[in-house]
Design brief:
This protein has about 170 residues and is mainly beta. It has a five-stranded mixed β-barrel. The protein is globular and about 55 Å long. The two termini are about 35 Å apart.
Length: about 170
């Protein structure tokens, strides 16, 4: 059997991060994805889906540090059924996605808070596949495809004093 979900959308709120007693990070956030389609009579319609996401380990810490409400992301993970009992005693459930791979898609100067302030290259952070307690992310870089038309110069990014040991990539 195969349980794999890939979503591209914008975060609906800032990442909420918590730590387990053993020190492992757990981050929760929501994502909004859009689908545009034509109805049978030719009318354009938009459909928006809101999905809850859960990050573990170093991926949760990176998401909390660099992503904000409105940040555009691509996430890959697995669908999970969460079940609980409400305060009134009724049984409740919902589907959410446990994120295994995160890619920040914002560019500097775009909407999305500080999510795009990492230089413009897409970066991918893989959550551990075996255990959420491991915390070493791997990263992959993908160069943008060469454009045939000349592109305007990149906006300058102000210098910020950052300790290089704190940068996760």
């Amino acid at each position: 059997m195969y349980n794999r979900v890939i979503l591209v959308g914008n975060l609906t709120r800032d990442v909420e991060i918590r730590y387990t007693p053993s020190g492992s990070a757990i981050g929760k956030v929501g994502i909004a994805t859009n689908r545009r389609f034509k109805t049978a009579n030719g009318e354009q319609r938009d459909e928006t889906m809101f999905i809850d996401l859960t990050f573990f380990g170093r991926t949760a810490e990176i998401a909390n540090q660099y992503l904000r409400k409105g940040s555009k992301v691509l996430v890959e993970g697995r669908l999970v059924l969460e079940q609980w009992t409400a305060q009134d005693g009724s049984k409740r459930s919902k589907h959410s996605v446990t994120v295994d791979n995160l890619q920040m898609l914002d560019r500097p100067g775009e909407t999305g808070g500080t999510g795009g302030g990492y230089g413009g290259a897409e970066r991918s952070y893989d959550a551990p596949s075996a255990s959420p307690r491991q915390s070493a992310p791997s990263e992959s870089y993908r160069q943008p495809a060469p454009a045939s038309a000349p592109q305007p110069p990149e906006p300058s990014v102000p210098e910020i004093d950052i300790d290089e040991e704190e940068i996760p990539f």
